[in-house]
Every structure is written in C-alpha cells, then in structure tokens.
Backbone:
C-alpha cells in the first residue's frame, strides 16, 4: 500500500482504496492509503511548524529544490506518462505531454524563486522611504482535480514552494497514483520536514479539515462549481485567502470567412481530445450560417474517424472516460440532448473493446439552441453541440450567453472580427484559430464569472496568490 507523506515521513492508514485503470477495469493501478481527519490535522500541524523555516530560506535554496524536482520529472516522463494514462485514461502521448509540462512548471518556478520583486519608493513626506515587499502567506492547502493529475498539482505546488510557503496537498480520489508518484519525487528534493505533505482521501473528510482549520492560510482549489462554492463559503467564514478554478462551457465561434479545415481541427481537438475532460474544452461550437452545412459535414467525417481505445495502445485518438461515474453522467446528458430535440449527428454510444473499460464514442449534437441544458451545463466529456448563428454579432451574443467565462475561441481570417472578439468575449482566455484546450505554462490561466475566483494561476501572476504584500516606512 502506498502511504501518506507527513512531516517528512511516510505514514500508513487503517483504510485503503484501489485505483482502477479506466482502459481495463480488471487492472488495479495500486492500493493507496485513505487519510482520516486526524491525519489531515497532523499534516496541517507539520506544515504550520515548518512554514517559518521555509519562509526564511534563501531564494537559491528554493530554486535548487524545485529544479531537482523538475529535472527528475522530465527524466522520468515516459514511465510517469504511462502511469498517468493508465490511471486517468488520456492517451499515452497526452500523458507524456502532461508530465513534461509538470516538469517544466517546476523548472519555471525554480527561476521565479530568484525573481521575486519588490519596490522602493520615495514618500510624500520628507526623510521617509518606502519599501514594498512580498512574503509567503504561510500554509497553503491544495485541492486538485483528477483530469490533469500531474500538471495541475504542479502549477499549484511549485509556486507555493517557490515563494516560501508550506503545503498540504489533497489529490482527487480517483488519481492517487499520480499524486503519490509526484510526492515521492518531492520527498527527495531536500525540503525541510513538514514543508510538503500529501494526504489522500475523501473530500468530505480530508478536504473539510483543510477548509476548517484556521492554520491553513490559503486554499487553492480546482474542481466543480458546486464544490468551489462550498470552498469559497468555508474560506470566507474564517477569512482565509482562496483561489478557485471551476467549470467552463467554452464557445468556439466559426465565421463564414474561416478556413474550414482549420476550424474543424480546432473543434475536434478542443471538444474531444483528452476525452473532452478539460475545463477549457470547446463544448459549444457556434457556426455562422454561411458555412454551417460545410462545417457540420466535415466535423462528422473527422469525428467518425477518431479511434477510441485503450489509452496505452498506439494509434488511439481518444481514451476512455475516467470513471464509471463520469461515464454515467456523459450518457445521461446524451439522453437529455435527445429529449430536448437536438439532433444527434454521431457518437454518444458506450462501446466495448478487448478489455472492459469506460469507452464512449464522441458525440456531436447539431441544430442546437443555446437554451438547451446540453448547451448550458458543463458535461465534462466528449460531447459537443453545434449552434447556428445568423452573423458575427449573433455569434458573439451566443458566445457570452453563459454563466461561465474561462476560454473562448474564434476561427476567422478577418482582423476586424478577431480584434473585436478578443476585446468583447467575456472570458479569461481567448484563442484565435487555435484550439481552446491547450495553454502555455508561463502565462496566466483563469477565467471570469462562475469559472474562476481569486488571483490567476501560472506564470509570474501566481505571486499574487501565494504571497502577501507588505509596505514598510523607514525614517532616514
């Protein structure tokens, strides 16, 4: 059994859970300890005790530790990618790509540890100088999702450590193997005991302890809107700093002047790769009437040609859905779409392969209305809706008519419309003639409305959440 990591030691537990391979449900990835509330409290105690020492560490110490972590992740990207794809279900090239990104994130924040900036200003009063500096917030509780089990923990843990914070990390319940592998690497990076802690287990038990303990100074959460709202409420009750990344119902607008081949490629990659289980996936394809028929025809051809199979098999385009629960949710929404009157163009079927797994053919609904539930609620699976638009203005209005605001895309060769869309799309990230799903690790990530709350993640903007600003006045 793989155990928790608390105060620099591996700790067992009286309970364990089995991680199952969604490509082959007969294959157990491993047995992983399930933390009790008492163990979660123990991890917080360890982080609280370690935080002052790590806060006083030099930027070089922090940079060296993060660089070691990043180097080992990159050196082991093949086997870690295989683990990730086996546990989460994305294809092996996608799994290796995600691990590579995680390694690069740690390398990037190793540099950021050396680049933390401040300001020195003159006061409006004679004989006084002002210094503005950034300090770590203290203990950071990290609650990560299952869809990017290496990259998202990396982009939370790395800046937290780089800026001098202690960490308690709770991964999603269905991907403990990836979390344990990452923690095992971090455990050998030379951090003081208690600086980094891993507790695996149920959100209702372990997550609740992180939310309620006043020694946890900040909480970074990625997950569903419903859970995010509960996290925000709990943090507000005790005035803890909070950062939330939640859902998306991201639009991709295709205008009459678009290159249709590029638009279809962007749509397929955005809607279906990683089995559609990305918060930046384009689940609403808003297409201007002049190219609607041509776009739908080519989209059907491309979607029908995608190979659905075992995540580790060469040639697989789309792996399985991550869990039985997620598969049931996807199938429920396929039924809802049909009940609402949308036309199911292709896909949406549970299929069998050589090994038992959670396989679903990518579904395309056409002739949809933006008022349908399948166009308003996040499905988080390989289900895309195509919505006709009269013109650009109508397409923009449909694009913004959602409670979410994470990413928005446009496919067009018109500089006029592209520039207007970049300015008026109500989203934190805008993509032009590229898929909405796929972002760089050195620039800010985040959205608006119900998609995000708090400071942006990634890049130099991460300092806004993982540090607090202090202003000092000094008489000469």
Residues:
């Amino acid at each position: 059994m793989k155990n928790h990591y608390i105060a620099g030691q591996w700790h067992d537990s009286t309970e364990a859970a089995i991680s199952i391979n969604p490509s082959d449900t007969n294959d157990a990835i491993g047995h992983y300890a399930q933390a009790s509330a008492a163990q979660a409290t123990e991890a917080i105690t360890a982080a609280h005790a370690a935080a002052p020492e790590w806060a006083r560490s030099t930027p070089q110490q922090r940079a060296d530790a993060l660089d070691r972590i990043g180097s080992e992740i990159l050196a082991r990207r093949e086997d870690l990618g295989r683990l990730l794809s086996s546990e989460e279900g994305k294809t092996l090239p996608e799994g290796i790509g995600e691990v590579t990104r995680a390694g690069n994130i740690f390398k990037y924040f190793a540099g950021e540890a050396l680049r933390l900036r401040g300001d020195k200003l003159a006061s409006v009063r004679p004989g006084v100088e002002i210094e503005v500096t950034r300090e770590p917030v203290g203990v950071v509780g990290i609650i990560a999702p299952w869809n990017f089990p290496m990259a998202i923990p990396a982009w939370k843990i790395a800046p937290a450590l780089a800026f001098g914070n202690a960490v308690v990390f709770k991964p999603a319940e269905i991907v403990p193997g990836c979390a344990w592998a990452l923690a095992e690497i971090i455990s050998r990076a030379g951090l003081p005991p208690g600086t980094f802690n891993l507790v695996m287990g149920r959100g209702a038990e372990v997550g609740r302890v992180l939310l309620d303990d006043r020694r946890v100074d900040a909480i970074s959460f990625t997950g569903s809107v419903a859970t995010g709202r509960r996290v925000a409420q709990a943090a507000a009750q005790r005035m803890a700093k909070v950062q939330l990344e939640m859902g998306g119902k991201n639009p991709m607008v295709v205008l009459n002047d678009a290159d249709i081949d590029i638009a279809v490629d962007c749509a397929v990659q955005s809607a279906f790769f990683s089995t559609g289980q990305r918060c930046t996936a384009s689940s609403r394809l808003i297409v201007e009437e002049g190219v609607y028929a041509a776009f739908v025809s080519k989209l059907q051809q491309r979607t029908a040609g995608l190979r659905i199979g075992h995540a580790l098999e060469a040639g697989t385009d789309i792996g399985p859905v991550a869990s039985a629960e997620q598969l049931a949710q996807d199938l429920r929404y396929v039924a809802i779409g049909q009940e609402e009157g949308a036309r199911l163009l292709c896909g949406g079927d549970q299929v069998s392969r050589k090994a038992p797994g959670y396989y679903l053919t990518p579904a395309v609904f056409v002739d949809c209305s933006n008022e349908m539930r399948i166009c308003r609620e996040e499905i988080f699976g390989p289900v895309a809706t195509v919505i006709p638009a009269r013109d650009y203005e109508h397409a923009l209005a449909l694009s913004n008519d959602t409670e979410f605001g994470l990413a928005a895309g446009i496919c067009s060769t018109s500089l006029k419309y592209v520039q207007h869309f970049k300015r008026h799309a109500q989203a934190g990230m805008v993509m032009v003639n590229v898929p909405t799903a796929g972002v760089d690790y050195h620039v800010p990530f985040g959205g608006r409305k119900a998609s995000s709350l708090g400071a942006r993640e990634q890049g130099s903007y991460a300092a806004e959440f993982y540090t607090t600003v202090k202003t000092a006045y000094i008489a000469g």
Remarks:
- The mean pLDDT is 97.
- Residues 92-113 form the longest helix (22 residues).
- The two ends are 61 Å apart (CA to CA).
- The domain at 4-246+451-475 is CATH 3.40.605.10 (Aldehyde Dehydrogenase; Chain A, domain 1).
